[in-house]
Amino acid sequence: xxxxxxxxxxxxxxxxxxxxxxxxxxxxxxxxxxxxxxxxxxxxxxxxxxxxxxxxxxxxxxxxxxxxxxxxxxxxxxxxxxxxxxxxxxxxxxxxxxxxxxxxxxxxxxxxxxxxxxxxxxxxxxxxxxxxxxxxxxxxxxxxxxxxxxxxxxxxxxxxxxxxxxxxxxxxxxxxxxxxxxxxxxxxxxxxxxxxxxxxxxxxxxxxxxxxxxxxx
Amino acid sequence: xxxxxxxxxxxxxxxxxxxxxxxxxxxxxxxxxxxxxxxxxxxxxxxxxxxxxxxxxxxxxxxxxxxxxxxxxxxxxxxxxxxxxxxxxxxxxxxxxxxxxxxxxxxxxxxxxxxxxxxxxxxxxxxxxxxxxxxxxxxxxxxxxxxxxxxxxxxxxxxxxxxxxxxxxxxxxxxxxxxxxxxxxxxxxxxxxxxxxxxxxxxxxxxxxxxxxxxxxxxxxxxxxxxxxxxxxxxxxxxxxxxxxxxxxxxxxxxxxxxxxxxxxxxxxxxxxxxxxxxxxxxxxxxxxxxxxxxxxxxxxxxxxxxxxxxxxxxxxxxxxxxxxxxxxxxxxxxxxxxxxxxxxxxxxxxxxxxxxxxxxxxxxxxxxxxxxxxxxxxxxxxxxxxxxxxxxxxxxxxxxxxxxxxxxxxxxxxxxxxxxxxxxxxxxxxxxx
Lengths: 217, 434
Known about the structure:
Chain A is an alpha/beta fold and 217 residues long. Chain A has 9 helices and 5 strands. In chain A, strand 1 (91-96), helix 5 and strand 2 form a beta-alpha-beta unit. Chain A is globular, with a radius of gyration of 18 Å. Chain B is 37% helix and 17% strand. Chain B has 14 helices and 17 strands. Chain B has helices spanning 3-11, 33-42, 64-69, 173-178, 188-204, 221-229, 231-240, 242-267, 291-297, 299-312, 326-334, 352-359, 381-395, 415-428, and strands at residues 50-54, 59-60, 74-76, 90-94, 101-105, 109-113, 119-123, 126-130, 134-139, 142-148, 155-156, 208-211, 273-278, 316-320, 339-341, 364-366, 401-402. Chains A and B meet through helix 4 of A and helix 7 of B.
């Protein structure tokens, strides 16, 4: 029974059916299905949605609907989860760099990371190198994610990495960068660990980066 | 050959003597003030503050000497530098700086030192106040944006998260009715000024004329629903809150038709091009929505707008839509759109050869002249020349091509590249293309 309901939750999410997904989630809770299992089904559904986006079957609008559905389900599950104390896969500090106010891409990455079990601390936009460093000291994340949309601000990513090196924090985190003007080449040049071409790829990379980090610790 | 004829021939898909060139006729085909300042320095032109054509994006009004140098064929009727129509528009507002009542025309300017190191000429109805985050911009006394200390643009309050889009919190169709839609309707005195300017420039210059002012909302999608509801929220409105989206679009369309009718009646006989809106439908990676959604909400509304313009004037219609918009081009051709901008060739599916082959005889490409994200700022001048030649070879044959960069030229861009670009556009753009 619970396997069927979990599958229905996943399918309704894939079909971007908000009402049906909520109905099935409520039913699942009634039947005593564990919140973690519901979240895992949602995460599986999000992965399929992400794959469909990569293939060009789904569009940005569809990713946004999926993350709205996810958020509504999380609102229902959060009070139940608090009791269960679930451990996140990893912790990510994310922000758009100094001088840049664009955040749609960053927000999408943050949401998809949360949907996939990460704890995300979003520093917002126009984040200075000092602010990134302070956040790393305060939150001790596994990953630092940086976003920029302008050719004139992406160079500030290098400043952040240099600041982390200066504070002796660089080898304690993995750095992933993304944004429209960025390339794999640029990411390498500035000393980042990874370049995420889009939100879906970014989540995959973050999973791998966390594994690498935990192995080396 | 006269500039005006050259542009009209291109829009009719005929080859004139050369490809027409646009730099500065629209807020999507001009250049950032910083890059423009550096260009003028490089060319050894007399140093002076740069006049802002667009304050938010810090976009330059292009001087006549540059228009001449680059062989530009088309200008905006609201231009404030020579050639300029002598009809100022007067604003009366309460100053954000000292609370006094100010009366200024849109042709009065003052100099403001921008944080990116250039003296900028701002119109007097714009006031700038230094604040914690940077510089707050006020237009006729209303705060519209803040430039970060190390920034290049005035970013909207919504981007700063200091404000919400006007319809962010509406829940029902009734909530939408309560919004002051009439405030978007264009005033008769504004329309009269547009008419006078269009007529003057039509009779006193040979330039092709474009009217960019279509009132607010400036579109249905990006400048429409997304502007009013929020970028992401509107996208999900179209999927899971359809009655709300329909109601909002009905109101938007009613206002847009009101504005278009007034404006076309005023300028229709003088301008060659009317920009019908700014509606980014793409992203870098793909369209924002599927074609089905486009047809469900937008196609018929765009069609009514375009039909009115076609019926009541001889002007060609131009739409601005950034990003990967390949699937919508055929839809726009269906409803009679004449020209599309910026033709973002670096976005997915926007391959120049494919676009020209499949649509080149049915729609004019206004843009697509250089990859402003990867080539113009970073390549060497001779690479720029090769790149521009390739694009002209693809887009120019049989007309239907107005040469412009893909969107505004941004800093940092080497001035030598800008010069190489426009020099090549002029020389290599001669018909027949070799």
